[in-house]
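Just curious: can you write whichever protein you like plus the matching structure tokens?

***
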Amino acid sequence: MADNVRELRPRLPDTEKITINLGYVDLGQVDLMVQEGFYSNRTDFIRTAIRNQLERHADVVKQSTVRKSLDLGLRNYSREDLEAARRAGEMLHINVLGLATIAQDVTPELARATIASVSVLGALHATSAVKAALSDRTR
């Protein structure tokens, strides 16, 4: 039965893994807060701290997003989107704060022919071949 099941669209992760280095005292204080039940684990503490800082600076983020003309959130670029841009003779400037995804069926040649620049604050998901093809256009 499982042989008949096909995934129509691969599920994208909704988080990106990062690594941070903390001093031993800071880490110990985080562990103490977890042990005392204020947070369920280290990740919960760190996510909460980050969200609090982002909320504290929300006006600056909002102003910068508008000033830099950034798409906020998830932005997907399909093969059809890029082919339409090529037919129209347009070059795309990808400016995303969040997650930018270039479809798996986009060839490096199509990407180079239609994407003038890539600026992503967050994460860019694309094949390694497409990322390599756009490396000179990525900031």
Notes: The mean pLDDT is 91. The radius of gyration is 20 Å. The helical segments are 24-35, 42-56, 58-67, 79-88, 108-114, 128-133. The longest helix spans residues 42-56.
